[in-house]
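User: Please fill in residues for this 169-position structure.
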């Protein structure tokens, strides 16, 4: 049991042009997705954590969101675009009218170790086969890096998902 939770944000299917749109939030847990061409020619498939959004096409990938809200994304096949949820906000205007002033929390220092990336780098990170990125709960993501299949095979959950993928091919 990975204790994963999901919230469906958007699920749209258009039978006229075959387009599909699936947007899911995952506050905690693990997900493994095998998104193939069979999903449709015009498609959006996005999974969001509190601090990262992954948009995929024709891809085998996974996302882990730890209880501390840090997020790890690994790509096995294809390409995943990762971007900050703050770049494409799900904007909901507040009620109109004046409200009483209130105190807000100021900026907070983020403890090292971390490696800074530019605003442009964080607005969109593209991961390809056997690449990963880790996004801490607070701060900017680490740089994309490669990972080894042997290292990943240590996890029973990964082996189980890869076996399911072999069965559907």
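Assistant: Residues filled in for all 169 positions:
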């Amino acid at each position: 049991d990975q204790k994963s939770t999901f919230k469906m944000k958007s699920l749209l299917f258009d039978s006229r042009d075959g387009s599909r749109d699936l947007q899911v939030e995952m506050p905690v847990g693990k997900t493994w997705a095998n998104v193939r061409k069979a999903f449709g020619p015009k498609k959006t498939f996005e999974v969001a954590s509190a601090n990262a959004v992954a948009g995929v096409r024709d891809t085998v990938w996974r996302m882990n969101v730890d209880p501390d809200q840090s997020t790890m994304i690994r790509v096995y096949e294809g390409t995943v675009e990762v971007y900050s949820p703050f770049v494409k906000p799900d904007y909901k205007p507040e009620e109109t009218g004046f409200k009483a002033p209130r105190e807000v929390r100021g900026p907070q220092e983020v403890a090292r170790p971390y490696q800074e990336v530019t605003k442009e780098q964080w607005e969109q990170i593209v991961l390809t086969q056997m690449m990963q990125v880790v996004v801490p709960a607070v701060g900017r993501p680490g740089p994309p890096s490669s990972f080894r299949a042997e290292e990943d095979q240590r996890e029973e959950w990964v082996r189980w998902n890869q076996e399911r993928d072999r069965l559907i091919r």
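For context: Residues 5-89+111-168 form a domain with the Jelly Rolls fold (CATH 2.60.120.1440).
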